[in-house]
Write a structure and sequence with these properties.
The protein is of the alpha+beta class and about 140 residues long. It contains 4 helices and 8 strands. It starts with 5 loop residues before the first strand and ends with a strand.
Protein backbone atom coordinates (compact mmCIF):
# COMPACT_ATOMS: atom_id res chain seq x y z
CA UNK A 1 0.00 0.00 0.00
CA UNK A 2 1.30 3.46 -0.88
CA UNK A 3 1.66 5.50 2.31
CA UNK A 4 2.48 8.78 0.54
CA UNK A 5 -1.16 9.50 -0.27
CA UNK A 6 -3.14 12.44 1.07
CA UNK A 7 -4.77 11.44 4.35
CA UNK A 8 -7.63 13.36 5.90
CA UNK A 9 -9.27 12.99 9.26
CA UNK A 10 -12.96 13.43 9.81
CA UNK A 11 -15.53 13.62 12.56
CA UNK A 12 -18.91 11.93 12.14
CA UNK A 13 -21.39 14.48 13.44
CA UNK A 14 -25.16 14.89 13.83
CA UNK A 15 -25.15 18.10 11.77
CA UNK A 16 -21.97 19.55 10.20
CA UNK A 17 -23.22 23.16 10.15
CA UNK A 18 -22.60 24.19 13.78
CA UNK A 19 -19.26 22.43 14.30
CA UNK A 20 -18.26 23.58 10.81
CA UNK A 21 -18.71 27.22 11.80
CA UNK A 22 -17.02 26.67 15.15
CA UNK A 23 -13.88 25.11 13.64
CA UNK A 24 -13.76 27.53 10.72
CA UNK A 25 -13.82 30.60 12.98
CA UNK A 26 -11.20 29.25 15.37
CA UNK A 27 -8.83 27.06 13.39
CA UNK A 28 -9.44 27.30 9.63
CA UNK A 29 -10.09 30.93 8.63
CA UNK A 30 -9.83 30.18 4.91
CA UNK A 31 -12.99 29.56 2.89
CA UNK A 32 -14.41 26.07 3.15
CA UNK A 33 -13.44 23.66 0.37
CA UNK A 34 -16.89 22.07 0.60
CA UNK A 35 -19.89 23.30 2.56
CA UNK A 36 -22.83 20.99 2.00
CA UNK A 37 -25.78 19.95 4.08
CA UNK A 38 -24.14 16.60 4.84
CA UNK A 39 -20.42 17.30 4.47
CA UNK A 40 -18.02 20.12 5.33
CA UNK A 41 -14.36 20.10 4.30
CA UNK A 42 -11.85 22.67 5.48
CA UNK A 43 -9.30 24.28 3.17
CA UNK A 44 -5.79 23.83 4.57
CA UNK A 45 -2.20 24.14 3.39
CA UNK A 46 -1.39 20.97 5.27
CA UNK A 47 -0.94 17.56 3.68
CA UNK A 48 -3.50 16.37 6.24
CA UNK A 49 -7.04 17.72 6.04
CA UNK A 50 -10.17 17.76 8.18
CA UNK A 51 -13.80 17.10 7.29
CA UNK A 52 -17.14 16.77 9.07
CA UNK A 53 -19.57 14.16 7.76
CA UNK A 54 -23.18 13.79 8.80
CA UNK A 55 -23.42 10.45 10.59
CA UNK A 56 -26.90 9.62 9.27
CA UNK A 57 -25.83 10.33 5.69
CA UNK A 58 -22.91 7.93 5.95
CA UNK A 59 -25.16 5.34 7.63
CA UNK A 60 -27.55 5.67 4.70
CA UNK A 61 -24.73 4.68 2.33
CA UNK A 62 -22.99 2.01 4.38
CA UNK A 63 -26.04 0.60 6.17
CA UNK A 64 -26.96 0.42 9.83
CA UNK A 65 -25.42 -3.03 10.26
CA UNK A 66 -22.00 -1.75 9.16
CA UNK A 67 -22.31 1.29 11.42
CA UNK A 68 -22.69 -0.96 14.48
CA UNK A 69 -18.99 -1.83 14.19
CA UNK A 70 -17.92 1.82 14.41
CA UNK A 71 -17.09 2.68 18.03
CA UNK A 72 -15.71 6.19 17.47
CA UNK A 73 -17.23 9.10 15.60
CA UNK A 74 -14.05 9.81 13.72
CA UNK A 75 -12.48 8.34 10.62
CA UNK A 76 -9.46 8.49 8.34
CA UNK A 77 -9.68 8.74 4.57
CA UNK A 78 -6.81 7.93 2.22
CA UNK A 79 -7.10 9.69 -1.14
CA UNK A 80 -5.74 7.94 -4.22
CA UNK A 81 -5.35 9.32 -7.73
CA UNK A 82 -7.06 6.47 -9.57
CA UNK A 83 -9.47 3.57 -9.17
CA UNK A 84 -6.60 1.19 -9.85
CA UNK A 85 -4.69 2.57 -6.85
CA UNK A 86 -7.78 2.07 -4.66
CA UNK A 87 -8.01 -1.51 -5.95
CA UNK A 88 -4.32 -2.11 -5.15
CA UNK A 89 -4.72 -0.68 -1.63
CA UNK A 90 -7.81 -2.84 -1.13
CA UNK A 91 -6.00 -5.97 -2.36
CA UNK A 92 -2.96 -5.27 -0.19
CA UNK A 93 -4.99 -4.76 2.98
CA UNK A 94 -7.28 -7.71 2.22
CA UNK A 95 -4.19 -9.93 1.87
CA UNK A 96 -3.20 -8.79 5.38
CA UNK A 97 -6.52 -9.89 6.85
CA UNK A 98 -8.41 -6.57 6.80
CA UNK A 99 -12.16 -7.20 6.43
CA UNK A 100 -13.83 -4.53 4.32
CA UNK A 101 -17.49 -3.56 4.61
CA UNK A 102 -17.68 -4.00 0.83
CA UNK A 103 -15.28 -4.15 -2.10
CA UNK A 104 -14.43 -0.87 -3.83
CA UNK A 105 -17.42 0.58 -5.63
CA UNK A 106 -18.80 3.82 -7.04
CA UNK A 107 -20.55 6.11 -4.55
CA UNK A 108 -22.81 9.04 -5.40
CA UNK A 109 -22.72 11.62 -2.62
CA UNK A 110 -24.64 14.72 -1.65
CA UNK A 111 -27.58 15.65 -3.89
CA UNK A 112 -28.51 18.83 -2.00
CA UNK A 113 -26.78 21.09 -4.52
CA UNK A 114 -27.46 20.31 -8.22
CA UNK A 115 -24.27 22.17 -9.20
CA UNK A 116 -22.19 19.92 -6.97
CA UNK A 117 -20.99 16.67 -8.44
CA UNK A 118 -18.84 14.58 -6.15
CA UNK A 119 -18.72 10.93 -6.86
CA UNK A 120 -16.09 8.59 -5.59
CA UNK A 121 -14.76 5.11 -5.96
CA UNK A 122 -14.22 3.84 -2.45
CA UNK A 123 -13.99 0.97 -0.01
CA UNK A 124 -14.51 1.15 3.75
CA UNK A 125 -13.34 -0.91 6.69
CA UNK A 126 -13.48 -0.70 10.45
CA UNK A 127 -10.22 -1.53 12.19
CA UNK A 128 -10.00 -3.73 15.29
CA UNK A 129 -10.18 -0.62 17.48
CA UNK A 130 -13.51 0.52 16.01
CA UNK A 131 -12.23 3.33 13.74
CA UNK A 132 -13.67 3.73 10.25
CA UNK A 133 -11.24 3.98 7.31
CA UNK A 134 -11.89 4.90 3.69
CA UNK A 135 -9.74 4.22 0.61
CA UNK A 136 -11.03 6.45 -2.18
CA UNK A 137 -10.51 8.34 -5.42
CA UNK A 138 -12.59 10.98 -7.22
CA UNK A 139 -14.37 9.74 -10.33
Amino acid sequence: MDYSNFITHGFLVDDPKEPGEYYRKRFFPAPLRQNLETFVEFETDSPCGLFLWKYDDLAGHLGEEAMKNIRHRSMCAILYETREEVDRGYADLTSKGVKFLSPPQEWKWDDSDPEYECNSYAAYFVDRFGYLWELWAYI
